[in-house]
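REQUEST ID: PR-0412
SUBMITTED BY: lab tech R.K.
PRIORITY: routine
TASK: structure prediction, single protein chain
INPUT:
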Amino acid sequence: MHSAHSPAPEQPDASPPNPQTIKAALDVLLRVYGIAPPIAVTITSGEQMRVDELAGRFLEWHASRVSRTRLRQSRFYLRDFVSCLGHLTIAEMRRGGCAMVDAWVCSHRGWNGCRGSVICRVKQLFKWGSDQGFYSGSPVALLDRPGNNTRVAYFSPEQVDAILRHGSENFRQAFRAMLATGCRPSELTYLDAADVTTDLHGEKYWLVHHKNEQHTGQRRRIYLTAEALEITDSLLRKFSSGRLFRSANKGRPDAPLSETYLNHGLRKVCRLPECRALGLDEFQPLQRSSGAPMRLYKYVAYTCRHTFAVRYLTGHYRDEDGQPIILGYPEVAQYMGNSAAMVEKIYGHLVEQTKFLSARLRGKRM
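STATUS: complete
OUTPUT:
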């Protein structure tokens, strides 16, 4: 026992290590497993194949099989991975490769919300090399893939009205189009005028590149509501070729729209007093893998896709007779380009909560 005058025991520091500490730990791992500094290796197959050569071959194969957005993400993560561990061979990766990959991912503070996706890219890289017969078995097959921090939030009608009152014209068009179609921000930003197509019945739709294109082998059809059709026609009158949605960034009326522009435009609007009063500047309460708290914006451009799903699953829209339009999981999944099981997994609890509150309100009125 400590006396009344004895100093209290020091508490251990619970703060997460900084990137410099993790980089130093990674260097220790390299020395512990007896891995030499980068040297020129002439053997380019088998256990002596270098990671940087494997990544180059993989990205060359990967380029013609995935969407442009997914290829850009894979290049970004794998180039960073190669800059850190690219000098290692497959044989060296078998000695502590899982620990080194985990240390590399943890050294990037900004990746806390997407660690699962980053590790998935690395595991895919080494599995591809094994499938191609360069070596036998992936050296990181036992590496755990943590789940990503999901942000399932959706806009209320009042929040949508506030955003549309304060956003720029180009931002409002893109924001309304995402709400009306449920498309991913990446699908909207790469939409060309030539991608607007008409079917045999005269109905216009978007034929977009999407992240699952490598599995389906087809581009995704996005059929247009009346609001989305109005926006599309107005943009086609302005831009008959090239990207359909433009940002007018830095005074350039023909600057292509980017996902970064959408998120920055939304953040700029959400900081305004009227939007802050509606909770649009909130952060999502999440945790890092170490247990330390982290802050991510609750409302981003992708929230429009969540809002589209929740609105059609909970009867937000009304038909001509005033009856709510409620779609099932398979119908919403078809519009969103997902599986019904995935839609139910992500939005099922929101749908059940809405049904419970509606029944409770009807009970109060009786």
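NOTES: Strands lie at 196-198, 204-208, 220-223, 283-287, 293-297.
REVIEWED BY: pending
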